[in-house]
Amino acid sequence: MRTQVGIVGAGPAGLLLSHLLHRAGIESVVLECRSREYVEHRIRAGVLEQGSVDLLRSCGLGERLDREGLRHEGIELRFGGAAHRIAMTELTGRAITVYGQQEVVKDLIAARTAAGGDLRFEVSDVRLAGLDSDAPVIRFRHQGRAEELHCDFVAGCDGSHGVSRPSVPAGELTEYDRSYPFAWLGILAAAPPATEELIYAHHDRGFALYSMRSPEISRLYLQVEPETDIAEWPDERIWSELRTRLETVPGWTLNTGPILEKSVTGMRSLVVEPMRWRRLFLAGDAVHIVPPTGAKGMNLALADVTLLGDAFAAFYREGREDLLDAYSDTALRRVWRAQHFSWWMTSLLHRLRTDDPYEAKLQLSTLRYVTSSRAYATSLAENYVGLPEV
């Protein structure tokens, strides 16, 4: 087989890149090891920055997003027995939209399928070759047959456990990594949200987050130890701990319901530089990971492939290579800003394993300042809704 850009991974990054390339008249093939059903239903991030919403609308993917997405103009910081609203739209003129990653993926797959896009699910034994030449090859197995995809470029959008990044020779990439001494226990519950906006709660027993996916479905998180066994958290224990950490404001009550899904996710920060090696371009979780506190993961992936789509368009339309050459440096400016914001939010809101009383006092002091200073609140809001240029 022959195409112009071979894309490994059918998450938001790989699918959006394929969509953008199609709109620019550039051929691509997307390879994914999981089934279509799996990628359309795996629960991941659910907050879209204003820029991500504008992007999806601009490339014809806004119809269901506008109909079903939940626009939020603020978030709530809850600590010390009181609720404090950060009025994001008032402070920045922008907002966020709650719309699950799996819904973005469904929309992208539908758009690529309708346009006759080449999406191959359930491939195996994917190997990249010839990346240091002008004729890369992706070898894989599909439906029991060995296949080869010859292309001009390879886009590695296959996440932190994919094959793309390990295909770069040792010593060519530098990793900047941090693991946090806590994890998130997340649940999806058939319970109408008891709030119209996300609640970030600081509590001496640990952090909690109240989010939602629809008017009928809530998404909630608890800070737990990294080695937590989910079997030790029956439903009633989860709801009891959520009540303790969230029902700290007089008159506010948590809505409960059947828990549809539960999982424990470790907290990690990672950046790999550069985001390109020869004919391989890395994007999304394949090259950077942020803790979910700042809601940046999916947004960074979409921003990466927007740059990459423009760079490929300039190459094929005008023979220009300057945007391809600048891709890594340009993308990393936004990546590091998001890294800092995610680290700051995580450090501010989570109970430290050492239970250092000095750190706890600093956290409360910072929270009071954030919620009383318009300048500090504006900085938080700007980063949360997404800076237009970084």
Automatic annotation (TrEMBL):
<dbReference type="Pfam" id="PF01494">
    <property type="entry name" value="FAD_binding_3"/>
</dbReference>
<feature type="domain" description="FAD-binding">
    <location>
        <begin position="2"/>
        <end position="341"/>
    </location>
</feature>
<dbReference type="InterPro" id="IPR050641">
    <property type="entry name" value="RIFMO-like"/>
</dbReference>
<keyword id="KW-0274">FAD</keyword>
<keyword id="KW-0285">Flavoprotein</keyword>
<dbReference type="InterPro" id="IPR002938">
    <property type="entry name" value="FAD-bd"/>
</dbReference>
<protein>
    <submittedName>
        <fullName>4-hydroxybenzoate 3-monooxygenase</fullName>
    </submittedName>
</protein>
<dbReference type="InterPro" id="IPR036188">
    <property type="entry name" value="FAD/NAD-bd_sf"/>
</dbReference>
